[in-house]
Amino acid sequence: MPDVKNWKIIGRGDERICYLHPNDPARCIKLSRREKAKQTYRELRYFRLLKRRKVPFTFIPEFFGVVKDDEVIGIEQQLVLDDQGLLPPNVAEYLAKPLTQQQVGQFWVGLEALQTYLLAYNVVPCDLVMSNLLVIERTDTTAVILIDGLGVSEFIPLPAYVPWLGRRKIRRKWARFMEKTVKPRFMTTQERQLP
Predict the structure, then answer these.
(1) pLDDT at 6
(2) Which CATH superfamily is domain 9-78 in?
(3) Rounded distance between C-alpha atoms, residue 185 and residue 156, angstroms
(4) Which end of the chain has fewer CB within 10 Å, C or N?
């Protein structure tokens, strides 16, 4: 594996550091130390399952493979960028901005499209939080992309393999995310009524 010391860090979490791919600015590599790689191993298994099921990577980053050596293991995946090639804001950052009525409407349509995708392809998020969702504004649409926190955290991952269990889990997590996170933040930040 190449030496990562000179790679540009573009994100950092509790377990992983996200680097810009040194040879491809449209890709990133999320690396964990092997002894602290529970999330990485879970996501690797889950991305491989999604590939086998031929799930389109339209609302989640494309998975390209594993990167590893004796000390670290990581995921190589698409770096989600906006149409200008910039990192888009996450949902918290997006909702902190003053938004027009058109932006508000397109944001809610974008959230609904993400939820529809998750349910249609049984893509189960394990960590549905605002920092894991990026918002990409286009002229007439807004896309909301889930970039992290994928997979099933249960010891026996039945929701990943049994669609009705997966959809039930997705609906439960989505409802909690909307009621406890997005709607209160949106109302506080935007001081508007929901559509």
Answers:
(1) 82
(2) Phosphorylase Kinase; domain 1 (3.30.200.20)
(3) 34
(4) C
∠ Cα 35 1 64 (to 5°)? 90
Phi then psi dihedrals of residue 149, to 5 deg: 75, 40
Q: How far apart are CA 112 and CA 167, in angstroms?
A: 15
pLDDT band at 2 (very low <50, low <70, confident <90, very high): low
User: Could you tell me how many residues make up the chain?
Assistant: 195
- Which stretch of DSSP H or E encloses residue 76? strand 72-78
Exposed e or buried b for every residue in 154-186, given b needs 16+ CB within 10 A?
Answer: eeebebbeeeebbbebbeebbeebbeebbeeeb
Rounded to whole angstroms, the Cα distance separating 15 from 155 reads: 19
Residue 67 CA: distances (Å) to CA of 25, 26, 64, 110: 17, 16, 10, 32
Asked whether residue 4 carries a pLDDT value surpassing 80, the answer given is no
Neighbours of 52 (CB within 10 A): 8
